[in-house]
Amino acid sequence: MIILSIILVLLSNAVNIRRDISILFNRIAILILIYCILHDISSLAVVTKGVGLHGGLLLMTNITQIFHIFIFLVIFTLEKYECQNILL
Q: Do the record's keywords include Transmembrane (predicted)?
């Protein structure tokens, strides 16, 4: 997921000729956030009791995934409003 996100941002910078690329970066960031939300929702049903690595240091449960989805939605709304302010 991170590799695909980095490739999308690099390609958006390489393809664009104009200097005003902040709108393009915001749109790419929104697409990346949508992809992250869909990825977390799809893995939400798989993890029911939790997966722990290194004795519970990296513990993933349903609550942590719901928290990640909430953070992604907050960032998505902020990016959407920022993109609207740039267009005005």
A: yes
58 φ, ψ (degrees, to nearest 5): -110, 80
* 51: its two tokens: 């997966």
CA–CA dist 39, 35 (Å, integer): 6
DSSP string, 39-71: HHHHHHTT-SS-EEETTTTEEE-HHHHHHHHHH
Rounded-to-integer distance, Cα 44 and Cα 74, Å = 19
Q: Which two tokens stand for residue 1?
A: 């997921």
Calpha distance 48→66 (Å, rounded): 12
